[in-house]
Specification:
This protein is mostly helical. It contains 10 helices and 3 strands, in the order αααβααβααβααα. The protein has a domain of 150 residues: CRAL-TRIO lipid binding domain (Phosphatidylinositol Transfer Protein Sec14p, 3-Layer(aba) Sandwich).
């Protein structure tokens, strides 16, 4: 009997590949490109610094939940400082993880990201770009922007919203981090409640589906003055 976990994994992988208009061959090619590149770069620095990308995604989703409760604007422009990025970090960004994040942002969160900017990019970041370029749709990949200097970053964003660490007038990054950590604590009960929520399928209305597998629609004529 097939392992149900393996079956679920395969179905999820095929669904994500279909969504991104990619094949398993594309996925395998990306993995092989990564392996060959690593073998040709023995000088790359290695670091055992712990980084759990799943934890990072969970923190990002929690921040999105807070913004849903407190803000009207839910579109994000992200800036990543990659000064301390290492090969160990990049290798944790597996193709399947990137595919799942892409689908979650596009379908689950309604594609809230309007742009993702990177600064202080080390040479190892080229490996990450190789993974991303082979897996993302062109319109999603076009959202990525690399800045070669802080001057380029300041030309893109108003200095009033940039932290002082990057030549702006906003608070320092560590101060902003403390503010967000306090906000997470304030929403602890809210997050704990989300963790125990479950779907009760028995409460779903019994609606017959049409030929295309969707509920029937009631189209009505509309007129405007």
């Amino acid at each position: 009997m097939d392992d149900p976990i393996s079956i679920t994994y395969q179905r999820s992988k095929l669904a994500v590949l279909y969504h991104l208009n990619k094949s398993e061959e594309d996925l395998n090619d990306a993995v092989m490109s990564i392996k060959y590149w690593i073998e040709s770069q023995p000088h790359l620095p290695r670091n055992t610094t712990e980084l759990d990308p799943h934890w990072w995604v969970a923190a990002a989703i929690n921040a999105h939940e807070i913004n849903i409760q407190e803000n009207l604007m839910l579109n994000y422009v992200l800036i990543y400082d990659l000064e301390n990025l290492t090969l160990e970090h990049v290798l944790k960004l597996t193709p399947m993880f990137i595919l799942n994040c892409s689908k979650m942002a596009d379908k689950g969160l309604g594609r809230p990201f309007k742009g993702i900017h990177f600064i202080n990019c080390p040479p190892v970041f080229q490996l990450a770009l190789t993974i991303i370029r082979n897996l993302l749709r062109p319109d999603l990949y076009a959202m990525l922007h690399i800045h070669s200097s802080l001057d380029s970053l300041r030309e893109t964003f108003p200095i009033d919203i940039l932290p002082k660490d990057y030549g702006g007038n906003e608070k320092y990054v560590n101060e902003l981090e403390e503010t967000w950590l306090k906000k997470y604590d304030d929403y602890k009960d809210y997050f704990d409640n989300l963790d125990v929520l479950k779907v009760n399928k028995h409460l779903r209305p019994n609606i017959s589906l049409n030929l295309f597998g969707f509920p029937p629609f009631d189209f009505r004529n509309m007129s405007f003055d």
